[in-house]
């Protein structure tokens, strides 16, 4: 029996990239475009709407998908009326580069070092094309290319190829993309049976969220409904430095793997420390029925999984909301991370100079209390775990001055002098509208 309290999600209107799992493995391309002529921009949106609608249908079958997002500057270039532009979330209106200091994008990660033109007013449209294989990717990429290449008022300003390995592992060697919230009405059940599905309004605009309210939505309703905000970040990973760091602090290969797992909260296979604290268990890591079925409440001191481990910081599960003061459910997000650049061969400790890392994509209805909150309060700051100076050991903006505490008996172990292992190479906030909203954008006559 359908639950009458759950508003029906208009799945057919929501872009494929927002709610639906990607094929695995896959290859993909991200394109950023600049609109120099408004009419051409709208014609592009009309064409992309057609492709996205078709790919939305095939997205259900895990085939090739095309997802489109617009930056604030992009909506402006399309001629969206000012009253409507003003109704978007302030963080989106400011853009990611303006939020750099707050987000910890400083030093090497500061916007002045970003790949041009990321973070500038020239990034208007983002297109993500993903496919299970290169031949099918080429087919959809060709459609997207035709959609823009005949239009002189458009310019491709940035491009990045990406992929996901069949193992799901990314450049540091860890399987990623396991811990994801399920969304009510999406047809997908939670991989963590201890956590019920999130209210749809946490991810998709136009529906009640976990507070029971409708999240602030851009106006008019035709534009906002069924859309979602998207966080896009290119994150370079210093894999050789990371391996060398662990190598210097361990006396065996086993210990290196253990220290690496303590930093992440999972073993490289994806097996959670909460379930297997002493050794990796690849069968567990590969089993979607079991690899996300855990909590932290029975490990308050972090003997199994340190409170400072990346995945525990990013989703503290029941370790935080014991007294009801923090509702972890208000800080979840859909993650769509993917790899770029060649993997550093196993065992190599010297940097080969290649650019490799992760294209990080998050989808959610609340940029501030989801992505920005998790990044600033939980990853960049240690107050909430009682270690104010400790940042996330793997992805935090470390500068060599802080460390990472690993609770062990009889005395805890502390890794010192953590350098940065992740450098932001650029990013932007986008809005991925619903399909009808794309038509609304294409038909603007301002
Ligand atoms: C290059 C940077 C990053 C790397 C290599 C990385 C890697 C990982 C890995 C290996 C996991 C464990 C596997 C899983 O549960 O899916 C994970 C989990 C997670 N990460 Fe990251 N991550 C990065 C950046 C970030 C950032 C910037 C955020 C948020 C602002 C974030 C949020 C999360 C969340 C929410 C989880 C899931 C936790 C859970 O539900 O248990 N990650 N990440």
* Ligand inventory: protoporphyrin IX containing FE
Order of helices and strands: HEHEHHHHEHEHEHHHHEEEHEEEH
Q: What structural class do you assign from the helix and strand content?
A: alpha+beta
Q: In one word, what is the shape? A: globular
State the distance separating the first and last CA atoms: 46 Å
Helix amount, in percent? 25-40%
Total DSSP helices: 14
Strand % is 15-25%
Low-pLDDT segments: none
What does this structure look like?
The protein is of the alpha+beta class. It has 14 helices and eleven strands. It has helices at 16-19, 38-59, 72-77, 82-85, 90-94, 100-103, 134-149, 221-224, 239-249, 253-264, 282-286, 310-314, 367-379, 435-442; strands at 26-35, 65-70, 125-131, 154-164, 228-237, 334-335, 338-340, 357-364, 404-406, 413-415, 422-432. The strands form three sheets. Strands 5, 6, 7, 8 and 11 form a five-stranded antiparallel beta sheet that branches. The protein has a four-stranded antiparallel beta sheet with strand order 2-3-1-4. Strands 9-10 form a two-stranded antiparallel ribbon. Helix 2 (38-59) packs antiparallel against helix 7 (134-149), helix 2 packs antiparallel against helix 14 (435-442) and helix 9 packs across helix 10 (253-264). The relative contact order is 0.18. The mean pLDDT is 93. Protoporphyrin IX containing FE binds next to strand 5, helix 12, strand 8 and helix 13.
């Amino acid at each position: 029996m359908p639950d009458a309290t759950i508003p029906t999600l208009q799945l057919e209107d929501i872009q494929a990239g927002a709610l639906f799992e990607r094929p695995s493995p896959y290859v993909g391309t991200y394109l950023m475009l600049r609109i120099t002529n408004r009419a051409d921009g709208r014609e592009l949106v009309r064409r992309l709407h057609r492709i996205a609608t078709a790919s939305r249908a095939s997205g259900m079958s895990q085939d090739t998908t095309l997802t489109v997002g617009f930056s604030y500057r992009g909506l402006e270039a399309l001629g969206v009326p000012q009253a409507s532009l003003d109704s978007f979330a302030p963080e989106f209106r400011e853009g990611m580069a303006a939020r750099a200091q707050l987000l910890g994008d400083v030093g090497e990660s500061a916007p002045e070092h970003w790949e041009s033109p990321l973070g500038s007013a020239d990034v208007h449209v983002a297109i993500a094309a993903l496919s299970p294989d290169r031949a099918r990717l080429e087919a959809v990429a060709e459609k997207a290319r035709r959609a823009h290449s005949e239009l002189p008022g458009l310019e491709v300003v940035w491009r990045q190829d990406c992929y996901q390995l069949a193992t799901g592992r990314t450049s540091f060697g860890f399987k990623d993309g396991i811990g994801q919230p399920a969304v009510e009405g999406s047809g997908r059940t939670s991989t963590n049976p201890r956590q019920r599905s999130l209210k749809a309004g946490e991810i998709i605009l136009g529906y009640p969220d976990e507070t029971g309210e409708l999240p602030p939505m851009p106006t008019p309703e035709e534009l906002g409904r069924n859309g979602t905000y998207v966080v896009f970040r290119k994150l370079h990973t210093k894999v050789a430095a990371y391996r060398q760091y662990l190598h210097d602090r361990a006396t065996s290969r086993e210990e290196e793997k253990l220290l690496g797992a303590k930093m992440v909260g999972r073993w490289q296979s994806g097996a959670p420390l909460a379930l297997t604290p002493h050794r990796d268990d690849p069968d567990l890591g590969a089993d979607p029925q079991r690899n996300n079925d855990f909590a932290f409440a029975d490990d308050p001191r972090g003997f199994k999984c340190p409170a400072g481990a990346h995945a525990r910081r990013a989703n503290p599960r029941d370790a935080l909301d014991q007294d009801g003061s923090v509702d972890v459910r208000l800080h979840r997000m859909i993650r769509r991370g993917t790899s770029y650049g060649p993997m550093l061969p196993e065992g190599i400790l010297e940097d080969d100079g290649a650019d490799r890392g992760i294209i990080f994509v998050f989808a959610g209805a609340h940029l501030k209390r989801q992505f920005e909150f998790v990044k600033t309060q939980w990853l960049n700051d240690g107050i909430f775990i009682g270690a104010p100076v400790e940042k996330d050991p793997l992805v935090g903006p470390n500068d060599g001055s802080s460390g990472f505490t690993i609770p062990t008996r009889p005395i805890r172990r502390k890794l010192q002098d953590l350098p940065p292992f992740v450098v932001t190479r650029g990013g932007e906030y986008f809005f991925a509208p619903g399909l009808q909203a794309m038509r609304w954008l294409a038909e603007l006559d301002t």
